[in-house]
Automatic annotation (TrEMBL):
Origin superkingdom: Bacteria
Domain Enoyl reductase (ER): from-to ranges: 12-367
Annotated keywords: Metal-binding, Oxidoreductase, Zinc
Protein name according to UniProt: NAD(P)-dependent alcohol dehydrogenase
Alphabetical list of PANTHER family matching this protein: GROES-LIKE ZINC-BINDING ALCOHOL DEHYDROGENASE FAMILY PROTEIN (PTHR43350:SF2), NAD-DEPENDENT ALCOHOL DEHYDROGENASE (PTHR43350)
Protein's organism: Aurantiacibacter xanthus
Signal peptide as annotated in the record: none
GO molecular function: oxidoreductase activity, acting on the CH-OH group of donors, NAD or NADP as acceptor; zinc ion binding
Amino acid sequence: MTTPARAAICRGNTEPFAIEDVELDDLRPDELRVRIVACGVCHTDMAVRDEQLPVPLPVVLGHEGAGIVEEVGSAVTVAKPGDRVVMSFNSCGTCPSCEVDAPTYCYNFFPHNWSGTRADGSPVMFKGGENMNANFFGQSSFATHAIAHEANTVKVPDSAAHIPLAQIAPIGCGLMTGAGAVLRSMKVRAGMPIAVFGAGTVGMAAIMAAKIAGANPIIAVDVNDGRLELAKELGATHAFNGKNDAIGKIKELVPQGLGYVFDTTGINSIIQDAWGLLAPMGICGIVGASDPKANLTFNEAEFMGGGRRVMGILGGDSDVGSFLVELLDYHVNGQFPYEKLIGYFDFSEINEAFHASEDGSVVKPVLKIGEE
Ligand code: CXF
Ligand code: ZN
């Protein structure tokens, strides 16, 4: 017997999202049905809407969901009915990357996250009896209810019981990516200088994490002065506008070079300028969505000679479960104050929430979908 739900259907960028009736499939052993309380909006949702990623349309998006578990399959151990949970991306659990707790590099990422169905091709959602593409990032949380999986569900720890789920929801994607890039991928060392290019959700999370790691100085670069002010509130010791010779100013501030540069812009010229700032053994982390046809060039001798590294990063090398709990601990302690990035919208305002992200007026829109 299917479960009725309401979901925001994405039919591409020529039509607004429309909230319509759908039905969820019965649960498989490793699945949970979650009543969604809130879901963050991420640029990856926009990339799918704009058909820049190979996700079939129409589809139910949303991959930063949080809610209350209603029912679990027979093999689920991560949570039980009534638990508060937050969801992230899905993974197979058995490939060589998953085996070493690196699920962001899951060999089977596409079928588990972007195929519109379960990995075995079966639908998780129907609309008027017809199959509907869903299971986006193993959730599709722009809906009143979602089917999630053992691998992408995290029980909210009791230490965060007082934090509203609407505030917890966005932790499973961009925030995790920026913080994980600093703490897990690049393993930023205390006392070392870092520059973060782009002060969106990922860049801001990287700045907060750089402060946690004890990096110094922490330099934020963006073209929006408002964002630079916020970056300073969150931990940046210096903030330079990219339109005003930020590279020259960084060279002046740290003449010996930077231990780390982190690019969230995906813009070739910025990445090339950024890695030109690296000190010996410096690491350039790249995470921005770039033009798939773009290639970077670099001077081989400069890289090899100084032991410099370029590191492609997905999802901040998060292992999902323990890293999200660690980030929630930092949040509860006030060391990861990402609530300053959030603007809340009602579910019915989903189109306004997307506009607010795109015009830059809100760093992290969060849709409030149901009661806690
Ligand atoms: C993802 C990319 C793959 C790992 C987790 C995060 N980005 C989503 O927007
Ligand atoms: Zn995302």
